[in-house]
Amino acid sequence: MAALAEDVLKLHCCAILQLDSDGRVLGGNAGVAAVLGYTIEEIRGQPFSLLFSAADAQRGVAEQAVARTLEQGIEQLSLAMVRSDGVRFRASAMLERVFDPAGSRVLVLIRDITEIFQTQKRVREAQEIALRAQRLDAVGKLTLGLSHDFNNLLSVIGNSLDMLSLRRSGDESVRRILDIAHRAVERGTQLTRQMLAFGRGQTLVPQLSRVDDLLTASLELYRRVCGETIELEIELAADLPPISVDVGQLEAALLNLLSNSRDAMHGVGKVLVCARLETIIVPSGGGERGPFVSICVGDSGPGIQAEIQESVFEPFFTTKSVGDGSGLGLSQVYGFAAQSGGTAMIGTSPLGGAAVSLYFPVAA
Ligand SMILES: Nc1ncnc2c1ncn2[C@@H]1O[C@H](COP(=O)(O)OP(=O)(O)O)[C@@H](O)[C@H]1O
Ligand SMILES: [Mg+2]
C-alpha cells in the first residue's frame, strides 16, 4: 500500500483494502476495523466476497467486480455489505487497479453511506408522494366541477319525475317506468355524492370524537359487513387522543374499506383494524408532520399490485367487473381523509394483503 499517503491509511471513515488479482485481501488501513469490524489479521487472506451478502456472494458479484477492475482500471459499486458482526450496511465501494512489482493489485475504498442512502430514499419517497397528491388534487378539482353539474341535472330530473308521478299515479305501467327512473336518479345522486367526496366538496360536520370508542361501538356492524367467514380483529393503542371528524363519513369510509377487503378475499380470510398515533408527512397538507391518529384496515387477501397502487384512489378506477365495482370507494376514502386535514395511504398488512391507512390530525 505504498502508493497511499500515510494520513489516508489512518482514516477511520473509510476502509481501504488491497486485493491481489484473485480478489484476496493482502492488507488494509485502520478504517477496516471501524467500517467493516475486522482486524487486518482476521481479514488478510480472505476473499473480497466475505464482505458481500450471501446472495451477492453466490452470484459472484465480488469476483466480477475485481475482474472488471483489472480489465478496465476502475469500478464503482453501491450495494449492501456485511460487517464482521453480521450487520448489513449500504456501502459505496470504489475499486481501482494499481500496478505493483509483484503483479496487478486492486485497491478498494469502502464507505458506509447508509445514512446518505436512507436520506435520499426518504426524499425520493416524499417527492413521489407529493407528485401523486398533486395528480389526485387535479383530478379532484375536475371531479368536483362535474359532480356539481350532474347534481344539478339530477335534481331537475328527480323533481320532474316527482311531478309526473303525481299526475300519472293511476297508470300501473307508467308508474313502473317512473319507479325505474327514480331509482336511477337515486343511484346517480349517490355516485355524484361520492364524486363530491373525492373532490373534497362535501359538507363535513366534524365532531370531537375518540376513535377507540367509535370503533368499539361499531364492531358488530363491521362483523356483519365482513360476513361470518371473515375473522375480524381490532387493535387499539392505549390513550389515543381525540380527533375532530365527521363520524358518519368516517363510518362510510371504514365500511368501504371493509367491503373492499371482503371482495379481495372472496369472503374468506382475516381483517385487522388498528388505530394508533403516528407521525407522517402529509403531502396535501403542505408537507406537515403529525401527530395523526391512524386507522388502518388490513387483510389477508392478495394485496394491491405495485403497478396499480398509484391509481386506486382515482375515481372510477376499479378492477372489478361492471356492476360489481364503481371505483368510487377508495376515492371517497381519500377525499374524506384529505378534507379532514389528513390523508390516506396504501401499504401492506402484517396479514399479507393490502392495508389502507387513514390519518386524522389530533384535535387541538
Ligand atoms: N383490500 C384490497 N385488496 C386488494 N385490492 C384492493 C383492496 N381494496 C381496493 N383494492 C383495489 O382497488 C380498486 C378500487 O377500489 P374502490 O375504489 O373501492 O372501487 P371498487 O371497490 O368499486 O372497485 C379495487 O377494484 C381493487 O382492485
Ligand atoms: Mg370498493
UniProtKB/TrEMBL annotation:
<dbReference type="GO" id="GO:0000155">
    <property type="term" value="F:phosphorelay sensor kinase activity"/>
</dbReference>
<dbReference type="Pfam" id="PF02518">
    <property type="entry name" value="HATPase_c"/>
</dbReference>
<dbReference type="InterPro" id="IPR003594">
    <property type="entry name" value="HATPase_dom"/>
</dbReference>
<feature type="domain" description="PAC">
    <location>
        <begin position="75"/>
        <end position="125"/>
    </location>
</feature>
<protein>
    <recommendedName>
        <fullName>histidine kinase</fullName>
        <ecNumber>2.7.13.3</ecNumber>
    </recommendedName>
</protein>
<feature type="domain" description="Histidine kinase">
    <location>
        <begin position="145"/>
        <end position="364"/>
    </location>
</feature>
<keyword id="KW-0597">Phosphoprotein</keyword>
<dbReference type="InterPro" id="IPR000700">
    <property type="entry name" value="PAS-assoc_C"/>
</dbReference>
<dbReference type="InterPro" id="IPR000014">
    <property type="entry name" value="PAS"/>
</dbReference>
<feature type="domain" description="PAS">
    <location>
        <begin position="16"/>
        <end position="73"/>
    </location>
</feature>
<dbReference type="InterPro" id="IPR035965">
    <property type="entry name" value="PAS-like_dom_sf"/>
</dbReference>
<dbReference type="Pfam" id="PF00512">
    <property type="entry name" value="HisKA"/>
</dbReference>
<dbReference type="InterPro" id="IPR004358">
    <property type="entry name" value="Sig_transdc_His_kin-like_C"/>
</dbReference>
<dbReference type="InterPro" id="IPR036097">
    <property type="entry name" value="HisK_dim/P_sf"/>
</dbReference>
<dbReference type="InterPro" id="IPR005467">
    <property type="entry name" value="His_kinase_dom"/>
</dbReference>
<dbReference type="Pfam" id="PF13426">
    <property type="entry name" value="PAS_9"/>
</dbReference>
<dbReference type="InterPro" id="IPR036890">
    <property type="entry name" value="HATPase_C_sf"/>
</dbReference>
<dbReference type="InterPro" id="IPR003661">
    <property type="entry name" value="HisK_dim/P_dom"/>
</dbReference>
